[in-house]
Amino acid sequence: MAEFDLIRRIRETIGAPGPGTLVGLGDDTAVYEPPGGHELLTCDAFVEGVHFRRDFATFGEIGAKCMVANVSDVAAMGGLPTRAVFSVCIPPDVTDDDVIALYEGALAVCRRHGAEIVGGDTVSSLSGLMVSIALLGAADPDRVLTRSGAVVGDAVVVTGELGGSEAGLRALVDGLPDEGRVAEAKRRHLQPSARVAEARALIEVASPHAMIDLSDGLSSDAWHIADESGVGIRLDADSVPLAPCAVDVAGRLGVDPLELALASGEEFELLATLPEGEVERAAEHVEAVTGTPMTHIGVVTNAPDGCVLARTHEATPLVRRGYEHLK
Amino acid sequence: MAEFDLIRRIRETIGAPGPGTLVGLGDDTAVYEPPGGHELLTCDAFVEGVHFRRDFATFGEIGAKCMVANVSDVAAMGGLPTRAVFSVCIPPDVTDDDVIALYEGALAVCRRHGAEIVGGDTVSSLSGLMVSIALLGAADPDRVLTRSGAVVGDAVVVTGELGGSEAGLRALVDGLPDEGRVAEAKRRHLQPSARVAEARALIEVASPHAMIDLSDGLSSDAWHIADESGVGIRLDADSVPLAPCAVDVAGRLGVDPLELALASGEEFELLATLPEGEVERAAEHVEAVTGTPMTHIGVVTNAPDGCVLARTHEATPLVRRGYEHLK
Q1: B interface mutation test: which of A8, A25, A41 has the most B CBs within 10 A?
Q2: DSSP letters along A38-66, please?
Q3: Domains of chain B, with CATH numbers?
Q4: What percent of chain A is modeled with pLDDT above 70?
Q5: Main-chain dihedrals φ then ψ at residue A213, nearest 5 degrees
Q6: Which of A22, A49, A76 minimises the CB distance to B28?
Q7: pTM, 2 dp
């Protein structure tokens, strides 16, 4: 039975279980000793034609990006990723080598962050490729960061530079040639990183009240914090850090780079709120430890104000511009 | 954004988090205090046209069966299910009400076994419906049962009666009318149970060495134990407990009911090995506590013998008859 040959190859690819894992892939379940403190659990499914296209991304990039999406969720809670299970629905034209490449992409992300894959499911698909990951994480009970803790008066900060993922997606869909910073934008879309170290560095020197990762896009994810915390958020349009590759691509497409930044899903940057007095020191520390900038882009306001985008002479309602799935 | 309306309805359906769960569905990850002892983690994906057909099963049955497959894996390790995450890839013709019905089916299984759903992902699908579940469980470190512990001379036992799931599937595919026990076979296929209580009862009075749940089919799953334990297994054909509904359907189809029992995947019965001297008492206790029979169907032999099926006058190699996905 070919399925069992593939499972054998997957087990060889993954290798021996790590410390604390008593049974890895290959039994009815994985068995492990949970680390102390709180445990985190998240899942994300990636569907062909919706989240990725095989003519844009390699199998390794697809597996890696789905794992990054999960790791990013754990990072946004202030945790460290530990163990994952990885399911693949395999259409007829995807080979065993392709599936191994998916696993290798996901494994590389796990290894970068000290996590491991402990199980999975390989099943047939009659149509597209689908990857589904569930990931566990460990967190200090005193430093778990939800979406619901934002306090009126908090500063709103974001890591990194925004708009690159959406710029890269549009460059791929529109078939822009790799001139200027176009290839950089495409890489930003296809090979994102999770901000695990940035979240840990932030927690080390500050007491953030709420955090979320930018998976839907800044405009939607700001609303998630506002809704869950019962507050409003005022973002300063001029402060939003624009990725140079997003500015480049926006110019080629004739669109506003800020619009790209607001709509850009799958950035996997962190959006956090914290006491304003902590911002300067936190930003310095995060950048010193990780090399990633952290920018003060807004303030938490009263709930009735909702989320607004403030420009020099006006403030307008922040329209939720969720990640537009490939269609 | 309609996706967020659906997520709100899913949160209402699931209700408040249970004890020990600090953050349930609706944040970047769930947060919980792991129970003492070892933790178990498994996942299973169910794909439309491969694992289920919407003209055979209701949405509630699809959600429930995928959860049962996961709970059954936890049961087969000797554990109790605790927390699950539930991802759905939703094609255009599946409504929000349908997705809620999927969740309700899965939730009913969770509640039956004291588990809860703490997270999920709802994404678009361009083609079929796909459900992917990852499930955590808790186990006593001294009583974790893998596939790899079988010892030469062990008795091989199985819970319940076999062949019903395969019989029901064939009855559905062939469009057999609901005469005799045909409807019972269809229900057996569409509404299986997980043997959590049976596994616990077995562990209470015996020291099983290896266990697996019948998800691929008796003939394949016996090989899984043999391969992982480095042993052989001799099954006694006359001892395999045949479900009356499988015998009925086999008669209508003109096939051997034993062949149905050997090939029947998704039975979710337990196949275990234990010292022969413990079998009688264990079977009595399991049936007394749960109402489920447990039958002695074979013996663990030396590895070079492989898996064989013994009939009155001959023993033949046991051909792996894996679960034939719907195609």
Answers
A1: A41
A2: EEEEEEEEEEBTTTB-TTTS-HHHHHHHH
A3: 2-143 (3.30.1330.10), 155-317 (3.90.650.10)
A4: 98
A5: -95, 150
A6: A76
A7: 0.95
